[in-house]
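Data availability (excerpt). The following record was deposited with the supplementary files.
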Amino acid sequence: MIDTEYINHPFLKPDTVEKRLYQLALAGQAIRKSTLVVLPTGLGKTVVALLVMVSRFPKGKVLLLSPTKPLVEQHAAFFKSTLNIPPENIALFTGNTPPHKRADMWENAHLVVSTPQVIENDLLGKKINLEKVACVIFDEAHRATGNYSYVYIAEKYQQQNQDPLVLGITASPGSNQGKIQEVCTNLHIKSVEMRTDSDPDVSPYIFDKDIEWKYVPIPVEIKGLKLLMDKVLSDRLSKLRELGFISNYQTRLSKREMLDLQARLQSQLRSFPDQKVYQGTSLLAEVFKVSHAIELSETQGASALSKYFERLENEARSKSGSKAAKRLMDDLSMRQAVHHLGGCDGNNPKLNVVKELVARKWRE
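Predicted structure:
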């Protein structure tokens, strides 16, 4: 059993941040030079970010970027509960934050927590600059590939700031050394610091877990629906194969392979626009959409898939909608899948199993 000690710091509220040596060590490295910190989920990556943040406050404001609105809101709530600064000095930017308000909020903030697309747009519009930003923290840093907003922001930070410090935090940096190097290059990171559950300074904080798998069969009607979508997916992959963008042995693409191909196609478009590459890009967009639909059918059930189909329908009907959405929703097999979904039970069978497990535990 570890006695709980808390970190004393003028920018931290008393008795809020537990002192863990591995977090202090990681933060210590990250303060010295731009660093990618790799730490398993649940071991306090955000605390490492917090420690780096408070060390840089005397030099200027800090910008923390996170991919989604819920994550941004979660981070902002955590920092308001731990930072010993006025709450109004912590600005939260999402797509819902009115553009005309963001400039003043940016100017007055000690900490800005934002989705990357908002910051990218404000940089492009020259509404803000990063000259006085003491540190940029990239949450889910492994996303910094291709045309993702992180890459543009990191580049502008290097151009506009005389003393830049970058911190990338992630639990899943990539499956190979090349991918990690790409992320580090794109974010201008100089060092990688990693901890695992088995490291001696981490293991005291790891709890033994007993895992019992519960297998939930996919309903028969969902299996039929999936067969229709598999047909659409196979057709698009076959066309990508004919164009030479994937090999003959690739009968399916993982999400990572899709992202890698997307980055490759976008790079080709930037260097040498070509009709064949445009066609491949649009086909890949269809692959992304139908793959997501298949994943929803298998993991979240008919109700979630119905909402996704509704969004695809709206995109296909919209004047500004993508050609990929229009072609996909005009496909006979997809139309059959949408029709087939109307007769499916909207209940997710996994939820019923969870309810039974919770009820059993409650009775115990």
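Summary of structural features: The radius of gyration is 23 Å.
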